Every structure is written in C-alpha cells, then in structure tokens.
Amino acid sequence: MNVPLQITMAADHPPDPSTSSRRSTTASPKAKLPAPFLSKTYDLLEEEEEREENCSGGGRIVSWNTEGNGFVVWSPAEFSEHMLPRYFKHNNFSSFIRQLNTYGKVELHDL
Question: Per the database record, which ranges form the HSF-type DNA-binding domain (predicted)?
C-alpha cells in the first residue's frame, strides 16, 4: 500500500539539541555537529524541495509539512526505491523510521 505518511517528532519528546539538523555557520572545534543520519535526512528533504521548485511536472515524493516540524512522504514506495539509496546504504522504509526513532519519538500519520 502506498499511502502518504506525515512524520513528526512527538510533542512530549522534543529532539535533543545536540542532534539538531540545523547547521551552525560558526562551528568551533568543540561544537557538536548533527548526527550524519539527521544531516542526510535534512539534505534529502532540501534536495527534493529544490527539485520541486525547479520542475513543473512529476509528483512529489517527500516534502516538509506545512508546520515545518516534520515531513510528508507522499509516496513511500518511490521514497524507498529512489531517495533512500541515494543517501543511505539501504532502501528499507521501516529501517529509516526505526533510525528516526533513535532521535526521539516519531509520530506517523496517514494523510
């Protein structure tokens, strides 16, 4: 089944600031960098958003949600087949969600 899913962090489990996906422009040697998984996920979302802005055709695969606190996987099958292998060493959507859960409670919502 290829149902769109909205993925957000649970309100009662705020993300750890040391694993934030925001990148510091004034990083010092002691500054904590975001975990590679979070950086790759952020880059994946930003790349897809840029692609959508530059293309008039084609369906969306993944995008930020309207609140900006999560993202929507519009096509989990295409996300797994095309997006995950470009950034990760697998194409398993369940593994991707499991990895997200290591950074806080993730909520999945069918749209």
Answer: 33-111
CA distances to 4, 33, 92, 109 from 20, in Å: 25, 8, 23, 22
Helical segments of 1-111, H only? 36-54, 76-78, 84-87, 93-101
Q: Whats the size of the chain, residue-wise?
A: 111
Degrees (nearest 5) of the Cα angle 51, 80, 88? 85
What pairs with residue 64 in β-bridges?
A: 71
Structure tokens at 100: 């997200």
The pair of three-digit structure tokens given for residue 47, joined into one six-digit string: 């790349």
Q: How many CB atoms lie within 10 A of CB 48?
A: 20
Matching residue, tokens 């979070």? 38
Exposed / middle / buried, residue 36 (Cβ in 10 Å: 0-12, 13-18, 19+):
exposed
Instruction: Confirm if 62 and 45 have CB atoms less than 8 A apart.
Output: yes
SS3 (DSSP) at 51? helix
Predicted structure pTM score: 0.71
